[in-house]
Amino acid sequence: MQDDVQVNDVKGFQPRSVRYAKQMDEAFGEGLAGFYGAVWADRENGLSKKDKHLLVFAIACSNLKTESAVKILQRLKKFGATAEEIKDAMMIAAWTGGIQNFTDVSPDVLREMEKLGF
């Protein structure tokens, strides 16, 4: 299926939600894969994949989703994000999620940034 190719291009694997949905019902799985593909599709004059990853990185940080934030950092490296872009996203996360969330998520994120060479 075309959507599976797009999903795999972004994540490197099929997301668990798509896999579980397909196990429940093939049509539901196809619908979820289509939604995923639509969100991450390249559109003329739309956000780049890097920009979309910066957005979801900021959201993950602001919601204390540390494991997700660290995984997204790895994708941000792949899509050519700069250290300054990532720091800007972290500051936005602190602004929207609160300084306590920023304090809680930062040690793991900063360690991963150093490991990835940001």
Query: What's the tally of helices?
Result: 7
Overall radius of gyration = 15 Å
What is the number of E strands? Answer: 0
The whole-number mean of residue pLDDT values reads: 89
What does this entry look like structurally?
This protein has 7 helices and no strands. It has helices at residues 2-11, 16-24, 26-40, 49-62, 66-78, 83-97, 99-116. α2 (16-24) packs antiparallel against α3, α4 (49-62) crosses α6 and α5 (66-78) crosses α7. The N and C termini lie far apart (35 Å). The mean pLDDT is 89.
Summarize this structure briefly.
Helix content is 80%, strand content 0%. The chain has seven helices and no strands.
What is this structure's SSE topology?
Blueprint: H1 2-11, H2 16-24, H3 26-40, H4 49-62, H5 66-78, H6 83-97, H7 99-116
Could you list some keywords that capture this structure?
mainly alpha
